[in-house]
Amino acid sequence: MFLFFLYLLVFIGSALGQQIYTHTHGPSTRPFCQPTATKAALEKNPTYKYAQFKYTNTETVRTASPVPTFTSTPRYAPPYAEVKHLLPNISTTSWGSWDTRSARPASSHNDGQYGHLAFSKLWEAAPVPNFTSRGLYSTTVSPTPVPTEELVLPPPLLFGPTDCYSVPQDFVFGVAGSAAQIEGAIADEGRAPAIPETFANLPPETAAKLGIRDLSPNYITDENYYLYRQDIERLASIGIRYYSFSIAWSRILPFAFSGTPVNSQGLAHYDDLINFAISKGISPVVTLHHFDTPLQFFGDNQTEILTNAGIRCYLGTSNLGFQHDLFEDAFVNYGKIVMSHFADRVPFWFTFNEPQVGTVNGISVDHVIKSHAKLYHFYKDELRGTGKISMKMEIPPGVPLNPLNESHVAAAEHFNDLQLGPFLYPLALGRDYPSAYKMTVQDYVPLSEGDLCNLKGTLDFIGMDVYTAPIVFPVVYDIAACAANNKTSNSFYPSCVGISETTENDWLIGQPSESIQMYSTPTYLRTQLSYLWNTFRTPVMVTEFGHPTNGTANPPELNAIQYDTVRSEYYVAFLGEILKAIWEDHIHVLGAFMWSFVDNWEWGSFDSQFGLQYVNRTTQERTFKRSFFDVVDYIETRRARS
Ligand SMILES: *[C@@H]1O[C@H](CO)[C@@H](O)[C@H](O)[C@H]1NC(C)=O
Ligand SMILES: *[C@@H]1O[C@H](CO)[C@@H](O)[C@H](O)[C@H]1NC(C)=O
Ligand SMILES: *[C@@H]1O[C@H](CO)[C@@H](O)[C@H](O)[C@H]1NC(C)=O
Ligand SMILES: *[C@@H]1O[C@H](CO)[C@@H](O)[C@H](O)[C@H]1NC(C)=O
Ligand SMILES: *[C@@H]1O[C@H](CO)[C@@H](O)[C@H](O)[C@H]1NC(C)=O
Ligand SMILES: *[C@@H]1O[C@H](CO)[C@@H](O)[C@H](O)[C@H]1NC(C)=O
Ligand SMILES: *[C@@H]1O[C@H](CO)[C@@H](O)[C@H](O)[C@H]1NC(C)=O
What we know:
It is a single chain. By secondary structure, the protein is α/β, with parallel strands linked by helices. Among the domains are: 2-62, no CATH class; 76-100 and 112-146 and 175-394, Glycosidases (TIM Barrel, Alpha-Beta Barrel). The chain is built from 21 helices and 20 strands. It has an eight-stranded parallel β-barrel with strand order 3-4-6-7-8-10-15-17, surrounded by four helices. A four-stranded mixed beta sheet has the order 1-12-11-9. Strand 7, helix 12 (362-382) and strand 8 form a beta-alpha-beta unit. Helix 18 (525-536) packs across helix 20. It is globular and about 90 Å long. 53% of the residues are buried. The structure holds 2-acetamido-2-deoxy-beta-D-glucopyranose (7 copies). One 2-acetamido-2-deoxy-beta-D-glucopyranose binds next to helix 13 and strand 11.
């Protein structure tokens, strides 16, 4: 999740009122679906009678069921030994951890262009002020079984579900996270500096504008780099079957570019993570790039790195280095190395997470879509992978404020063509950039017929992070004239449409989040899914969805933190709409991933927390919140049995 888009990308309409939704939640049985349960309710008059009084309140104690382990391990590509000839020039080495105490390692002789000294210099030049603490762990922690007491379900919610749809047997349901937000250990075992390290160094005024109160670095976060086995053990215990994580490029290739040595410790780490997940019955899902571009793409000058990486771009919200001349080649090289090592065990791949965030100009979009297509063809044609590949899109489809008003519909179409169009038209349909994009980003790189042919059909499905719904209305008379005017005086540029927080009837569009300007909008989800499925004629996967609470304001008591009904309601409502989209609208929704399995670092702070588990930042202990139980129970009671 990236929280900045609503602030910077679009003009937000003034709040006019609110709309409240009553969401429902499902206990394990569904009385609404059973004819006998409705019989008493249908009686015209109640019957009153005395009985012997007893304290009869009984409690059914249920515990979560762990995922079953695999009976056979599916293979999605040949193992590395059989495909390594595809990458003949790879050399591996290891660097160990950057030692801040002795600025230079013992072997401080100049040991080559990519040696230990060069590795230390990367860190010495990185903007990591006060980098001293390395957290509690410095080696992989052995997992311990989750005690049964921790797996007891909470009492049922007050609102029960009224739907009787089942979850399709092949529905891919899981949780997501990303390297920079959970791993910590940023300078350990050969990891080199990456752009997330700059986020805690935002100028205070930028942080204030973004509503970030407590700027914190990503040096430690959840220490998942060492606690991943325990984290996976917990996911398996509560019944999660798919785990979507990202691999840190700067752990695999500390020197980023093609032809530089591969970090054997980085490969070994993710190899073990994947194997451990599979051993627990969990399928690994891999994202190659989740905002964590290595710092090499930003030059050597720290001041320039901080300026360039700052939130100051006209289309994307942050500069992720995609526009660099060597980006495409370097990313494809990195992707090939990772895919060739792990494709045998990974069913789903994402090249980029939310590339809209970092595409600062035309060339950056060009590099993103072309490197994606190259990796797609490498995977399908050379590795002969049978898994599926996509990208995770940011900016959920916009919905017109008034769908009966033509100018509102035109504004929503412009919004979607501008935000999703530059990726989805070429990649899903092999069609040129939409005019909304070309008129706004005038330095776009024209796509040739040959380009379109290579790009077409390289999304096996559309990955969409659908947290909320942008409700779009017109703010200018002439959108084309607004889009052509990229001067800073044009405050409507680049989106040239408005985003409303209220419905036409002046109700808020959904439950507001307590920590960021975001609303829970399940009411619009079917429209959003329908837009994607029917426009791009491709299955859709909800690759992230979730609801943040105010991490800074956590109640002091653990069991109060755990009782996050607002999150349960969000998930159950969204999942209910997904099932309606599948069964009533005939939309192929492949699956859904909850963001996130654990409270984490949200790009500069811990103010906003999306976790299904709480993390005690002193002890690194994880605690399941009630939403985790509620949502797994909702899915499992509806899963079609074979
Ligand atoms: C491998 O390296 C050699 C020597 O540098 C070079 O000639 C060759 O083109 C490289 N092969 C690949 C596939 O990159
Ligand atoms: C680094 O630590 C010093 C001393 O505690 C403090 O004054 C300074 O603000 C810190 N800098 C950053 C960027 O955190
Ligand atoms: C680093 O960049 C800043 C801003 O562009 C510039 O003022 C400074 O001179 C540069 N430093 C070096 C060592 O090049
Ligand atoms: C459509 O919306 C626009 C902009 O909000 C408004 O000016 C116009 O009157 C509306 N048209 C109709 C037919 O309601
Ligand atoms: C901004 O607009 C001017 C005038 O149309 C155009 O020449 C320029 O390329 C635009 N800049 C970008 C980055 O699109
Ligand atoms: C979140 O919690 C902090 C700390 O209690 C508080 O200052 C802030 O106002 C809260 N934010 C919202 C939106 O309630
Ligand atoms: C976090 O751990 C510390 C140290 O054990 C403890 O004092 C504190 O109460 C814990 N916080 C919560 C919310 O449980």
